[in-house]
Design goal:
Elements (H helix, E strand, L loop, with lengths): L7 E3 L3 H12 L4 E4 L4 E6 L3 H11 L8 E3 L3 H7 L4 H10 L4 E6 L6 H4 L4 E5 L4 H10 L3 E2 L14 H8 L5 E3 L11 E4 L7 E4 L5 H8 L4 E2 L27 E4 L4 H6 L5 E6 L9 E5 L4 H16 L6 E4 L6 H14 L2
Parallel strand pairs: 1-8, 4-6, 5-9, 10-11, 12-15, 13-14, 13-15
Antiparallel strand pairs: 2-3, 3-7, 4-7, 5-6, 9-10
Helix pairs in contact: 1-6, 10-11
This protein binds adenosine monophosphate and magnesium ion.
The site of adenosine monophosphate has 19 residues, from strand 6 and strand 10.
Length: 333
Amino acid sequence: MSTKLRARLYRPTPANMVFLARVLARGGLVAAPTETVYGLAADALNVKACKAIFKAKGRPATDPLIVHVDTVAQARTIAKLSPEALKVAKAFWPGPLTMVLPKQPGVPAIVTSGLTSVAVRMPAHPLFRRLIRLSGCPLAAPSANPFGYVSPTTAEHVKAGLGKRIQHILNGGASKIGIESTILDLRDPFHPALLRPGAISLKALQSVLGRRIISSLHKITPNEKALPAPGMLTCHYSPRTPIDLANKITQTRINEIPADEAVLLLVKPTYPTRNNVFWLTTKGGLPKAAHLLFAMLRQLDNGRWQKINAEVAPGRSALAMAINDRLSRASAK
Ligand code: AMP
Ligand code: MG
């Protein structure tokens, strides 16, 4: 256990918000909550500040950052918004939706990993939005965790992962959704593609766009030079403990699993279980399961289990797909 953490947690008092915004405006890093997960934010137009994000996370330079904005006007300074992009923005912003669009010339190459496109989102979290407004900066912010590990959904998670590498963490409580944004590739408005599943469903996006969206999931391999969507790395969001996935873990199966392996179910079983059995919800709501998933993976990862036997979410709803996407990446060797 480390005792000399550098990072400090800040409560969202007006004075602290002004202070943290000033840190950002001067090129510093601030970890802050969004409704999806906690982000590690920096001025998206400041090359040095963005470099510091990559350094703190140990993130490869080939993995571009999402730029967070407070208004559509600000989004236009970062990306070129087609009429289709504007329609999507009107329908889903602020919210857990990121669009990949042609970039404006002012966006530094470090943010986009040299791509001609940029990822933009208007988050719904009032504290994150206030940081953008107070700092006057569009904020580049990937998840506030060491590269490849489980994304943080609380300020404590951020401190546990980056506490020795960053100084400022805004504590805004647990992220409501708990899973990263849906990423829609709209570089070509006539050929939209889903790059990462999240809380906003493909169906909802298709109905706003009035056209079919192809799914580019799982088509990208880790060694491609510039990743269209690096969240798409097959192995990502990974605890150290190995994970095995199963469609349904029955009572009989649970009894066969060794006592030094954990069992992660979606819903609390109605039968008595052993102390290696964990669940995400008591009644089975997927929003609750998504909200708790990463915290549970961290808890189990700290529990010295030999393995985590996890059950996948049933159905093909947006959250089921998003949960299963994260579980399958977490389980990839
Ligand atoms: P995260 O670490 O969760 O913030 O991940 C940021 C995500 O944004 C990455 O996983 C990429 O998929 C996506 N992204 C950022 N910029 C671009 C871009 N120019 N083109 C495609 N995807 C992008
Ligand atoms: Mg991430």
